[in-house]
Design a protein that fits this description.
By secondary structure, the protein is of the alpha+beta class. It has helices at residues 3-28, 63-83, 90-113, 134-160, and strands spanning 34-38, 42-49, 116-124, 127-128. It has one domain. The longest helix is centred in the C-terminal third of the chain and has 27 residues, at 134-160.
Length: 161
């Protein structure tokens, strides 16, 4: 499968899942409403995040232009890097497609609402991880897979020495 076909498929799947879940939460939950999925571990909690991870830059006057610019630069950078991949770098391609689609999913929210809809609330009793969404998950999995690929490459390089 070509890298651009993979990018298109992953992006379509992630964007549909991301936007559909956000639409569902926005239309069926009140802001800050929470529904228990697994007691003391996992809830669906509707929040809106004006900032980045952990609410960084939430109160900044330039946050919307900044985040839109960063998302667009990241998307263009990923497309540029995809062109330079070798055909055997499937994991890197898949990783970049996840990051690309996650960035687009959150960009859509920032353009539409000026903030991102989050709803996945993972916690251990009162200790909460910041709420996140499908796009954030795609970015996190993509970055993790990139790190795994780098680690595997480094191990293979050291084994040849």
């Amino acid at each position: 499968m070509s890298r651009y076909r993979l990018l298109a498929i992953v992006t379509a799947v992630v964007l549909v899942l991301d936007q559909a879940t956000k639409l569902y939460v926005d239309s069926h939950f009140r802001l800050h409403e929470s529904v228990t999925v697994l007691e003391n571990f996992f809830h669906f909690t509707y929040v809106r995040n004006k900032g980045a991870a952990f609410g960084i830059f939430a109160d900044s006057a330039i946050r919307i232009p900044f985040f839109i610019t960063v998302s667009l630069v990241a998307a263009v950078g990923i497309l540029w890097y995809l062109r330079r991949l070798k055909d055997n770098q499937k994991l890197v391609c898949f990783s970049l497609a996840l990051i690309f689609s996650g960035a687009l999913g959150n960009l859509i929210d920032r353009v539409r609402f000026g903030e991102v809809i989050d709803f996945i609330d993972v916690h251990w009793y009162q200790y909460h991880w910041p709420a996140f969404n499908v796009a954030d998950s795609a970015i996190s999995v993509g970055v993790t897979l990139l790190l795994v690929d780098l680690w595997r490459e480094e191990r293979a390089r050291k084994a040849k020495c």
